[in-house]
Amino acid sequence: MSGNGAVWGRVRGRLRAFPGRLAACGAEAAAYGRCVQASTAPGGRLAKDLCAPEFEALRRCFAAAAKKTLRGGL
Amino acid sequence: MQRLGGLWLLWRRPPAAGVAAKGLGLREVASGVSPPGSTSPRALNIFDRDLKRKQKNWAARQPEPMRFDYLKEEVGSQIADRVYDITRNFSLALDVGCGRGYIAQHLNKETVGKFFQVDIAENALKNTLEMEIPTVSVLADEEFLPFKENTFDLVVSSLSLHWVNDLPRALEQIHYVLKPDGVFIGAMFGGDTLYELRCSLQLAETEREGGFSPHVSPFTAVNDLGHLLGRAGFNTLTVDTDEIQVNYPGMFELMEDLQGMGESNCAWNRKALLHRDTMLAAAAVYREMYRNEDGSVPATYQIYYMIGWKYHDSQARPAERGSATVSFGELGKINNLMSQGKKSQ
């Protein structure tokens, strides 16, 4: 780790903002979670990008929440 | 806390685990002796112990270590309860993987005369909690205990054996340093620990990246624990399980707490990078699959408590086959039999 932990502190600060932004996107997160959970039912098969549309919606909402709380750059 | 002046022992890992300590000019200690029946392969290396030492040192150096101590405090007090349940006083005790001394703070001077605290991270030994028993802090690895045979009346270990590479060998060493009629009381994480986190990461990684790699370390199953203790030579085993469920606001807070406890992953096969997309997806899956009514998410910690004794002639042994004097068929008449027995005495 670097001497004063500047980079680590910056990255960790960004990560600490995640829960707040996720809370702002409750509906999209629930939709994505339901899609993934449905694939775990008997007969379902989880493959890559099975829930890509839902995840795209979640990511867009997340980025929008980030822009709202943006204070001088990520 | 008293420290006998200057008794800080730094014990580096010996070059080859199988080399007899006698050849190095040292007294015969637990780490150098390999029991004759031992079949554990020397190549068993799952965890990066150096990294674990760095992680524990970092965790112990946090500005507010008590923020993350809740789990270890709880399990430490449970182990202290079990020590009190044994109606004996122990003059010399050892705590393997003690952290900041979560067990010793609950015990009193009458029950335990002197406590040896062994841990792999020196920052944890430097920041110990308040305790009234005189202690000696030793910096040593749990798999290479620098003590002679038949030294301790009591050995305790709380939530640190799940990071040792060679668990059979570690248990054999604990058995080695115990005196006859000594007892080992330990607590380890069990198979169901953090299953919610494991499943969420697995599902999210499969959906986002097409495959998954292990992020939660493998835990011992309860049957294996009994076998391991028996193989190490312990008698009269007792294993019981306890589940602690802690509610967190979300997956990110859980992961931050795990890191603050010093329980980050240090397996050699860990993936170095966890993508932000995957983390976001996993947090969404975790919340959807496992959340409570009030919106928090639970994390399960399954703890196995084990008690094992070192053999001594005074301990009760199973009776010889064929030495029964009454049969199970007469169980209905047990009151008559007992009063008959009392009359004839």
UniProtKB/TrEMBL annotation, chain A:
It comes from the Eukaryota. GO terms for cellular component: mitochondrial matrix; mitochondrion. The gene is NDUFAF8. This is NADH:ubiquinone oxidoreductase complex assembly factor 8. One of its GO terms (biological process) is mitochondrial respiratory chain complex I assembly. It comes from Canis lupus familiaris (Dog).
Automatic annotation (TrEMBL), chain B:
Pfam families: Methyltransf_11 (PF08241). InterPro entries: Malonyl-ACP_OMT, Methyltransf_11, SAM-dependent_MTases_sf. It comes from the Eukaryota. Keywords: Acetylation, Methyltransferase, Mitochondrion, Oxidoreductase, Transferase, Transit peptide. One of its GO terms (biological process) is methylation. GO terms for molecular function: oxidoreductase activity; S-adenosylmethionine-dependent methyltransferase activity. Residues 94-185 form the Methyltransferase type domain. It is found in: Mitochondrion. Interacts with NDUFAF8, leading to stabilize NDUFAF5. Interacts with NDUFS7. Interacts with PYURF (via TRM112 domain); the interaction is direct and stabilizes NDUFAF5 protein. This is Arginine-hydroxylase NDUFAF5, mitochondrial. It comes from Canis lupus familiaris (Dog). The gene is NDUFAF5.
